[in-house]
């Protein structure tokens, strides 16, 4: 991109996305750099990101809100595994309490951005999604806070004969407000977090709900309410009770992940034992709840109060493990020859990964090819100045990592102000170091896009950490200055 357009406004930081990461980034900027001018661009008409976009039945978190919530704002609700309306209310409170509403610009989608080393600024092309108008802003920093999946479409694989089906087909990412499934036969295709949420939520009113999966997923019953956290809040107050519950749950998450990594066979047996206790006697556990991979090779699915298992025990839901041969007029025919009839088919088949909202980046006239870049500290890209991003943990609560990244970003801005720098860019001392995928995770939605994403190196600071305690030291305590982070002034490399 080369533009001769004159920016209508200059900002110190341009944050992209008004979901949980962007709202958090805005709060940290407001608290740590109150004099800096920033805006949060949101392509949609509302804030909240995932928690406003998805409207399917039962939508909820799969992490406890004492760690998924912000460190600076206590979670006061009795529910620990919380539904979307409660999370959205929490995010709206964060916006109001921190005066962020004036900084959020709805219907603004960042299309592209060009960096100039001469001026040490980004020129950003923005589309008004409500009018189609294009405008240009300049910014000293870009902060991509939109996560890593596409908001405009979910992933649906090709299904042979799909057009033959005479019922309704929906994807959870595009759930119609007026969809009536009461008394109907529902087939949910998928076995991930969305599927295990949908099945028990729909089973209360549908005639029957069947979850059709190609491969089983690890599913663990967890309490919807955290009794320890609720008691701590009553005894110690919101602030201290929340902090104590947060520390307990961080330790629990890390402990479970490490146990699964170190003792995968034992972890598998324990999960199977927990499943067997929840399912009817004689249920074929190994057929439907015994994945071929080890625990935490993919994310474990949590079911609050065992609601999925309860629906199976009641007979209002069932699980089928097989592959689809073709859609038929009345449902789907499986490779085994069995036909599953349905009035409504829900394709809970996953997401489309898209890095940084699909923004086209250019540095001094050269397009940035993401797959040729390396991630620096899991928050910047090699050779790309003044660009930061927020991607959370895959083995723990997303927001734990994002909060630390926002803190580190604010410390980096302070360091640059103190030393008179106006740009910085990561430069690997050994560009030929061995690399591996940025998201080293076996989930299908990651594997489909991994070749188009940035990569990580084999050592710090190019190795993306998934350790919260290591990141606390690295991002919160250690200096932001680094031999592989080069600072400069406009037009001059320092």
TrEMBL record:
This is FAD-containing monooxygenase EthA. Its cofactor is FAD. Pfam families: FMO-like, NAD_binding_8. Belongs to the FAD-binding monooxygenase family. It comes from Amycolatopsis albispora. InterPro entries: FAD-binding_MO, FAD/NAD-bd_sf, Flavin_mOase-like. The keyword Ribonucleoprotein does not apply. Keywords: FAD, Flavoprotein, Monooxygenase, NADP, Oxidoreductase. The keyword NADP applies. One of its GO terms (molecular function) is NADP binding.
């Amino acid at each position: 991109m080369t533009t001769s357009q004159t920016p209508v406004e200059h900002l110190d930081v341009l944050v992209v996305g008004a979901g949980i990461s962007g709202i958090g980034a805005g709060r940290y900027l407001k608290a740590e750099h109150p004099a800096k001018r920033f805006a949060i661009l949101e392509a949609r008409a509302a804030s909240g990101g995932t928690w406003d976009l998805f409207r399917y039945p039962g939508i909820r978190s799969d992490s406890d809100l004492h760690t998924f919530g912000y460190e600076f704002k206590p979670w006061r609700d009795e529910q620990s595994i919380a539904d979307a309306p409660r999370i959205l209310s929490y995010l709206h409170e964060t916006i109001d309490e921190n005066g962020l509403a004036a900084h959020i610009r709805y219907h603004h989608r960042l299309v592209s951005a060009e960096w100039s080393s001469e001026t040490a600024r980004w020129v950003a092309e923005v589309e008004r999604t409500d009018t189609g108008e294009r405008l240009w802003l300049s910014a000293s920093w870009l902060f991509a806070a939109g996560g890593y999946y596409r908001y405009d479409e979910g992933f649906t694989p090709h299904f042979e004969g799909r057009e033959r089906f005479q019922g309704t087909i929906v994807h959870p990412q595009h759930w119609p407000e007026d969809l009536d499934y009461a008394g109907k036969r529902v087939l949910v295709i998928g076995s991930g977090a969305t599927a295990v949420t949908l099945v028990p939520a729909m089973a209360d009113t549908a005639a029957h709900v069947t979850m059709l999966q190609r491969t089983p997923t690890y599913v663990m019953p967890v309490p919807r309410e955290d009794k320890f956290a609720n008691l701590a809040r009553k005894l110690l107050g919101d602030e201290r009770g929340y902090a104590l519950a947060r520390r307990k749950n961080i330790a629990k998450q890390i402990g479970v992940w490490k146990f699964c990594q170190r003792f995968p066979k034992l972890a598998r047996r324990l999960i199977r034992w927990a499943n067997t206790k929840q399912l009817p006697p004689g249920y074929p556990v190994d057929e439907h709840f015994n994945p071929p991979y080890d625990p935490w090779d993919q994310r474990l699915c949590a079911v609050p109060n065992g609601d999925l298992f309860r629906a199976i025990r009641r007979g209002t839901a069932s699980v089928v493990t097989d592959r689809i041969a073709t859609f038929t007029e009345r449902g789907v025919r499986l490779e085994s020859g069995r036909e599953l009839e349905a009035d409504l088919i829900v394709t809970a088949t996953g997401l489309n990964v898209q890095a940084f909202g699909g923004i086209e980046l250019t540095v001094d006239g050269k397009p940035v090819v993401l797959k040729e870049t390396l991630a620096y500290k899991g928050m910047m890209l090699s050779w790309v100045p003044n660009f930061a991003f927020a991607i959370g943990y895959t083995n723990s609560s997303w927001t734990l990592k994002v909060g630390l990244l926002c803190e580190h970003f604010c410390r980096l801005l302070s360091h640059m102000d103190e030393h008179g720098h106006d740009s910085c860019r990561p430069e690997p001392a050994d560009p030929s170091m061995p690399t591996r995928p940025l998201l080293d995770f076996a989930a299908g939605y990651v594997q489909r896009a991994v070749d188009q994403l940035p990569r990580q190196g084999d050592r710090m600071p190019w190795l993306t950490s998934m350790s919260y305690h290591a990141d606390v030291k690295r991002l919160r305590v250690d200096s932001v200055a680094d031999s592989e982070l080069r600072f400069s002034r406009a037009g001059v490399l320092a």
